[in-house]
Design goal:
This protein has 199 residues and is α/β, with parallel strands linked by helices. Helices cover 19% and strands 29% of the residues. The protein has three helices and nine strands; from the N terminus they run αββαββββαβββ. The strands form three sheets. Strands 1-2-5-4-3 form a five-stranded mixed β-sheet.
């Protein structure tokens, strides 16, 4: 395993060089971080370089680092994480790309490199509000047409802003402000002498 990772590390550093902003090798996995401006060029290199041959994009997801590990986060808030697989070499790599602007998180689309990025990018746009420049059909995929906001952002309320219900008088589905009131749940205290019905 470590010999294969050594070869992958050497191939990545040889092919990408200075375009790698951060390199992390941990728990048998390699994660590289690249600039948003370099991401499409790096993706093509990862796919086309014979020493790498990452033919498949397995997954792509958005991440909101605003409260990472319940600590104040310094640096860009939104990140796109891609997981790549080389069938030819039987190895994987994780690629992180941070959006430079927190107000309008914008990164280049990878759909021109891997077709499978299409729906993954739509999902990250819908749930995190990350805009993928160059995506031909960037629209919501999981939330409703009139949904406002991005539900996986850390600052989005857990209960949401509106709720949907069927109105029997109007005979249709309606939207209304959320009627759920925030409450504090205090756990029930279990006394040791009666724990689990024993004794």
């Amino acid at each position: 395993m470590s010999e294969r990772l050594d070869r992958l590390e050497a191939a990545l550093k040889g092919a990408l060089g200075e375009r790698i902003q951060a390199f992390k090798r941990e728990r048998g996995e390699i994660t590289i971080t690249v600039r948003a401006a370099d991401s499409v060029d790096v993706a093509r290199t990862l796919r086309d370089d014979p020493a790498l041959k990452f033919e498949q994009l397995i997954d792509l997801a958005g991440v909101d680092y605003s409260t990472y590990k319940d600590q104040p986060w310094e640096g860009p808030r939104f990140c796109v994480v891609s997981h790549l697989l080389s069938v030819s070499h039987n190895w994987r790599v994780r690629v992180k790309v941070f959006a430079p602007d927190d107000e309008l998180p914008l990164v280049p689309s990878l759909t021109g490199v891997w077709n499978s990025a299409n729906w993954f990018e739509r999902e990250a746009f819908d749930l995190f509000g990350i805009v993928f420049e160059g995506h031909e059909d960037l629209r919501r995929i999981l939330t409703d047409y009139g949904f406002i906001g991005h539900p996986m952002r850390k600052d989005f309320p857990v209960s949401g802003h509106v709720e949907m219900r069927y109105d029997p008088e109007r005979r249709r589905v309606i939207y209304q402000p959320v009627t759920i009131e925030p409450r504090e749940i205090t756990p029930r205290i279990v006394r040791e002498e009666h724990y689990g019905g024993l004794h």
